[in-house]
Specification:
By secondary structure, the protein is of the alpha/beta class. The chain folds into 3 domains: 84 residues, Udp-n-acetylmuramoylalanyl-d-glutamate--2,6- Diaminopimelate Ligase, Chain: A, domain 1 (3-Layer(aba) Sandwich), CATH 3.40.1390.10; 209 residues, UDP-N-acetylmuramoyl-L-alanine:D-glutamate ligase, CATH 3.40.1190.10; 136 residues, Mur ligase, C-terminal domain (Protein-Tyrosine Phosphatase, Chain A). The chain has 16 helices and 22 strands. The strands form 5 sheets. The protein has a 7-stranded parallel β-sheet, sandwiched between helices. Strands 17-18-22-19-20-21 form a 6-stranded mixed β-sheet, sandwiched between helices. A 4-stranded parallel β-sheet has the order 3-4-5-6. The radius of gyration is 24 Å and the shape is globular.
Length: 457
Amino acid sequence: MISHKLKAIEQMAEGDGLSREFEEILIQGVSIDSRTVTPGNLFVPIIRELDGHDYVIDAISKGALASFWQTDHPNPPVHLPLIFVDDCLKSLQGLATKYRKELLVKVIGVTGSNGKTTTKEMLNSVLQTKFRVYKTKGNLNSQVGVPLTVLGINRDAEVAVIEMGMSEKGQIDQLSRIVQPNIAVITMIGVSHLSSLGSREEIATAKLEIVNGLENGGCLVYNGDESLLTMGLENIQSNTSIQTISFGQGKFNEIKSENAVTDSNGSYFSVGDNKFYVPLLGAHNINNALATIAIASKMGLNSTEINEGFRTLKMPNMRMEKIYSPLGYTIINDAWNASPDSVNAAIKTFQELSGYREKYLVLGDMLELGDQEKEFHQLIGRNLDPLKINYLYTFGALSSLIALEAEKRFPIGSVQTYMDIMELAKAIKSMIKKNDVILLKASRGIQIDSILPILMQ
């Protein structure tokens, strides 16, 4: 993590006003949350729903040694080590940008509409077989989270895998310039954030901003099955010296899978003469594995090392996470987030599962889909197969549209809609039995996983 005397921090953040008596204080790491601050931290009072300036004194009482203070805020606490800045977020980002330049680490930046976290975790697990790896923790992939991630990189790290998310145009550009990746990855282009970007074309353009911070001669690994990326790259490559590696299912890709077989535990497939196994539910994870294989191969790993990394892969909770109830049924918790692409992929995997008595599909609303949100939900309902799913439960106004479409083909009584989360939980609990399986899928804001405690009782 960043370790500098406070005077150097002030210069790197382009702040001023630090009293001379505090210049030699040694800062160890950065925090934006007074509840989790650790001794030696610099506290940065970010202004969001709450104003971090209200917690500066609390942070310092818990061990922070200094704080930024935004100049438009009155009444800074006296006699405390403060660095005055015009904008706390911009200064945090600027500090991270300067610190990145000090590091010798090779940085891999990961973005995409879906698959970012899975690819990050795969890269971390695989590259750890040969390198000291630092990765984005949790979901710190935002305009705040990415600079915090950079500032947390240890100086002895050999590789850093940094996830980059966005909600609007220009944000990936900003993050890429902070991260300055040596290798960048675009997993895929979906329809998340249509409400702010308007079209898949604009989403692709926004994701391709990741090349703006890519080092001269750096490498972009991208989903070659996505024509929007291929077309967008034609314009970019004429003005840059970046290398590219395409991955996907199409035969024209440089890294492509063959002989794929997926079961209830994972996927087997070949790339050229090498065979691989990924222990994750869903054939859609093969593409994330291909991106990982492309990067790992470029960094000198062989197929044995890559397979060892896949074998030891551990995914965060709520991503096709299998949970076994003491009553004998299985819950697949994929409720971290949802878009039409990820919902369809999860449903496809769920429909192909075998060995269970009955299958319960529980879907909540998909958010941030713009003017087409109703159509996207209706299409999900039309595509459900009543021969492969026994019961459908939906939660929320938008997801009721899924139910309305499914009711046209499902047996009477097998589709139910709820607006009360507790009623939903009780209804499922009254039905589900030993050797059944249930899939939970919805956007994070719906918090459909809150029914888990009842299902596990």
